[in-house]
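TL;DR need structure tokens for one chain.
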Amino acid sequence: MLAWRMSRQLLEPRGTATAREVARALCGVQVQVASSAELAVAVRQRRPRPGEVERALWTDRSLVKTWAMRGTLHLLPADIAGSYVATLSRLRPWEAKAWERYHGISPAEVDRVCEAIAAVLGSEPRTREELSTEIAEHMRSKKIAQKLGSGWSELLKPAAFQGLLCQGPPRDRNVTFVNPHAWISGWRLPDPDDAGADLVRWYLRAHGPATVQHFADWWARQRPSVVRPWFERLNDELVTVEIEGLRAFLSSRDLPAIRRRKPTDAVRLLPNFDQYVLASGRNDEAILPPKRKAKVSRQAGWISKVVILGGRIAGVWEFGNDDGAIEVELFEPVPAPALRREARHLGGFLGHDVAVRSRSARN
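>> reply
TL;DR here they are.
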């Protein structure tokens, strides 16, 4: 199962996939750290292409950068990004009393902000300051202007979830925003339930076998009951399998391929926030032993760079201080030649030699 999952996520074997094809295969690439997203693409390419993600975003517009799963920034394929957004359009966390008390903004004010964004934002990129000024003028609200201008994103995420806003090309290190209806050719939001069924289908192709809880956690940290109807729409396509006592769902057409797949001893160095870890690895004991979870899923939602051995998380790694080396902390033995090969692959993308320093995991 782990070897098959690595193949579905383009980790073994590596191929010639483009940045958009990687984002499609993984169900998005998390991108609040731009360098990690670029590495997530590069580690899956036989010959990484520096600068490809930027070109796909701002020149080709084959990728979209927007808030999606769990309210975090993702790279999504432009032609199906609307489906991801549509699944989130019915989530309205700003209507909860706790949200309103914490942020000091009423649901009605949030809806007015979304209406203002739809009215003022087009294909011309706006910085946060420019957008907040225009919205404040449109709404005649200094409070909203202050909230938007402070770098606070919670007033922008509702617009992103309704398909009214995504990120545009940076300007002088400032983030900009555009309306995807004007920025992306053919942008549309399908029916949320149809989109939800599609998302389950795509997720299981990349990250299955998986439980409803796995999917709900990855999608939006929701209760399983919220997404179970999407699984039920696919009853004719899914089978239930048991892996080491865990009952999980899988596309029926993928079962023969898993049965034929042979285990792998491939080693990979994955960046922070990689989908291989985010989609199920933190909660899947077959991938990550519970006693090592704190090393991978750290405080404030930080996900470590990880060493993958045969589909399991076998360690964590970081860049060294100034010498171009990487420092690897291993949970189990990993062949040194394989680590050096991965470091060379990493160096080919970064443009400099990368040495490896390894140590056993500290308790």
